[in-house]
Specification:
By secondary structure, the protein is α+β, with helices and mostly antiparallel strands. Helices cover about 35% and strands about 20% of the residues. β9 and β10 form a beta hairpin. α2 runs parallel beside α6, α6 packs antiparallel against α10 and α13 crosses α15.
Length: about 550
């Protein structure tokens, strides 16, 4: 039988000249140009994922097919960040339905979790590594749901490029190799992880070194042939659950069988004619919406891009939004306030009014309502479909647990829970944790304008706002907006800022900010596709190994 991906054989790793995009001359910090393309565009965090997505489009697939294929390839090529052992979310503009559609493919905690048992074991917080940190992986269910409802190809077909890469191998890219090398101790502590992800069980692969994951190839092949039920209740799921049980994990086969995706309505706020859309809780997208709306009453353009006054205002808005996030946001079935209350214009105007232009706050309280690691990619196709897609296993290499023989790195999303009595995000059986990964989307006059995201734990909401303001307030093109120096507020008055001039640093310090050395701080990795009057503009973050391309 002829392979369903046979037409892609000549396209998988080399981009023909017919796919080369039109570009402007470089005008950004990285020297990259925004990619302009007439028919379709892709931006991912790793070049092989980008070329795979383009190959899918060239073979007749749509943006959804291409996004899932790219996500599966990133599972192989960027395994410390993502994979089927994690969760995924997406915001999709359906050209046929002419509307935005949200997908939450996150999993729940295991049926056997117990705060009392953790406390008895001497734990004061949910473990960040090991089998007890593992929650149900929802990504595979999300990939399948996207393809069945909005794609044109089968899951088995779009998994073929990832199967080939995992089986035959590939040379590891530099930034991924650098990150991989920091996690050797974590990987070495688990027999399955050590055998799967360390060369000779000893070290991480170096930049340019060939790496294979034949166990991952076999797992994807089993799914391609038998469907996702192989994992969600089938033989593969039994293997994973049995492996976790031997390590003290909390998942059962019934937990896997019960996994379901949620189709959700994105939340939104308007900012000067642009509407930012984020997914509802349990994700942290609501913090980006709050932050943006709090800033609406400030003349940001007059302050000047990345001036002390500008940075101070954004940092203080971030603190206020994240105070609400930490206090109120959780699994929507357990929240005690409605998302609409957190986005009430009057409430956010009052919150924004708490920003003191003369002094940095330490730890502002949540408002009174009475009541990571990650990959991001985006694809647009010739029909006008756009997808904002994010997939994560949370920390670098997630829980650090690979059940031997599966090749699957399992997420540690359970670490997103708290153990505080009465908190809406308290650990409990069959519950979704507060989630960090958020895809972003912007419309203008009801029409799609920008599909974008910035990965990286709590960097994501503050990254979304910074990139969007670069575009809206300062007229940057997509690559300029992605490249521009960012801040990352860490905790209290501590903040790290890229490329900060000494004069601005002195002004911020005088306002009470504790400036941390930005070396070693992750400022996220962004991708973006903008819809033009005709064609597309795409950008990829130089902070990652990725690339944008078009056809």
């Amino acid at each position: 039988m002829k392979s369903p991906m046979a037409p892609l054989a000549g396209l998988l790793f080399l981009l023909p000249l017919s796919l080369m995009a039109q570009v402007t001359s470089p005008a950004t910090r990285s020297g990259r140009s925004t990619v302009y393309a007439p028919r379709a565009a892709v931006a991912t965090s790793q070049p092989l994922a980008t070329s795979t997505a383009l190959a899918i489009l060239e073979a007749g697939g749509n943006a959804i097919d291409a996004a899932v294929a790219a996500a599966a390839v990133l599972n192989v090529t960027e395994p410390h960040m993502t994979g089927m052992g994690g969760d995924m979310f997406a915001i999709l503009w359906s050209a046929r339905e002419r509307r935005l559609i949200g997908l939450d493919a996150s999993g729940r905690s295991g049926s056997k979790v117990s705060v009392d048992a953790l406390r008895a074991a001497g734990e004061t917080r949910v473990p960040a590594t090991g089998a007890r940190a593992v929650t149900v992986p929802g990504a595979l269910a999300g990939w399948d749901a996207l393809l069945r409802t909005h794609g044109t190809m089968t899951l088995g077909a779009v998994l073929q490029p990832a199967i080939r890469l995992a089986e035959e191998g590939f040379p590891v890219t530099p930034i991924i190799a650098q990150d991989w090398a920091t996690e050797v101790t974590k990987l070495a502590s688990d027999p399955g992880a050590r055998a799967t992800y360390l060369i000779d069980g000893q070290r991480a692969p170096k930049a340019g070194e060939w790496f294979r994951n034949p166990d991952q190839a076999r797992t994807f092949r089993r799914i391609a042939e038998g469907g996702i039920g192989v994992f969600y209740g089938g033989d593969l799921g039994r293997e994973v659950v049995a492996g976790l049980e031997r390590l003290g994990g909390y998942l059962t086969l019934d937990d896997l069988k019960a996994q379901q995706v949620r189709w959700v309505e994105p939340l939104s706020v308007n900012y000067k004619g642009y509407t930012l859309h984020e997914l509802p809780p349990a994700g942290q997208g609501i913090a980006a919406l709050q932050m943006l709306k709090m800033l609406e009453g400030h003349d940001l353009k007059a302050k000047g891009h990345n001036s002390a006054a500008y940075l101070h205002t954004l940092i203080e808005a971030k603190k206020l939004a994240h105070a609400d996030l930490a206090r109120y946001v959780a699994d929507p079935e357990h929240m005690r306030v409605a998302p609409a209350d957190l986005l009430d214009p009057g409430y956010l105007a009052r919150r924004g009014g708490l920003i003191d232009p003369r002094r940095a706050a330490d730890q502002p309280p949540a408002g009174d309502l009475g009541g990571s690691e990650t990959i991001y990619l985006t694809v647009a196709d010739g029909e006008g479909n756009m997808i904002s897609f994010i997939n994560s296993i949370y920390s670098y290499f997630g829980s650090g647990v690979v059940v031997p023989g599966t090749g699957i790195m399992l997420q540690n999303r359970g670490a997103g829970f708290v153990m505080t009595e009465g908190h809406p995000n308290r650990l409990a059986p069959r519950k979704r944790p507060l989630h960090t990964i958020i895809p972003g989307f912007v419309t203008r006059n009801g029409q799609p304008w920008l599909s974008f995201g910035v990965m990286g734990g709590d960097m994501q909401p503050q990254g979304h706002v910074q990139v969007l303001l670069n575009l809206v307030e300062f007229g940057m093109d997509p690559q300029e907006a992605i490249d521009a120096p960012r801040f990352r507020h860490l905790a209290g008055r501590t903040v790290a800022i890229e490329g900060l001039p000494d004069s601005v640093a002195r002004e911020l310090a005088a306002l009470g900010h504790d400036l941390r050395n930005p070396v070693g701080v992750a400022f996220g990795g962004g991708q973006a596709i903008m819809k033009l009057g005709r064609g597309w503009a795409a950008a990829s973050d130089p902070r990652k190994d990725g690339m944008a391309a078009g056809r």
